[in-house]
C-alpha cells in the first residue's frame, strides 16, 4: 500500500477474513470481514504502536506456558502448577513450603478434583493432583514451580 504501509491478510480455519495494515508510523489497523460477505468490512480498529504491541503481547506472551492464566503490565503472572503425587510436598502443609518467603509468589487458590479452595491457610495439607494457582513475578512463579516439583 504505497505511502501507507503493508497489508497482511489472514483467513482463519473458520473461513473468517482478517487483515492488518502496518502503517509507516508504527500504528496498525485491524479489520475483520463479514462471514456472509467477505468483501464487506464488519469492524475496523486503528491501534497506536503501543496498543499494537500490547495486543501482540496478549496473543503471543513472551513466556508462553499452557498453564499461564494471565499476565499484567505490572509484571505479574498467574499460573496453574500441578502438584505431582511423587512430590516432596504431597501430604505436607502449605506453610512448610515457605513459598512467599522464598519466591515472593503467593498460592492464592487450590483446585482439588471439582472443588476450589480460595486463600489456603498455612496449615492447608497439600495432595498429589492438586492444581495450585500461583501469582507473582515470572521469576517467582518459575521458582515456585521448581520448589513444588521437588521429589
Automatic annotation (TrEMBL):
<dbReference type="InterPro" id="IPR058776">
    <property type="entry name" value="KhtT-like_N"/>
</dbReference>
<protein>
    <submittedName>
        <fullName>Potassium transporter TrkA</fullName>
    </submittedName>
</protein>
<dbReference type="Pfam" id="PF02080">
    <property type="entry name" value="TrkA_C"/>
</dbReference>
<dbReference type="InterPro" id="IPR026278">
    <property type="entry name" value="KhtT"/>
</dbReference>
<dbReference type="InterPro" id="IPR050144">
    <property type="entry name" value="AAE_transporter"/>
</dbReference>
<dbReference type="Pfam" id="PF25991">
    <property type="entry name" value="KhtT_N"/>
</dbReference>
<dbReference type="InterPro" id="IPR006037">
    <property type="entry name" value="RCK_C"/>
</dbReference>
<feature type="domain" description="RCK C-terminal">
    <location>
        <begin position="66"/>
        <end position="150"/>
    </location>
</feature>
<dbReference type="InterPro" id="IPR036721">
    <property type="entry name" value="RCK_C_sf"/>
</dbReference>
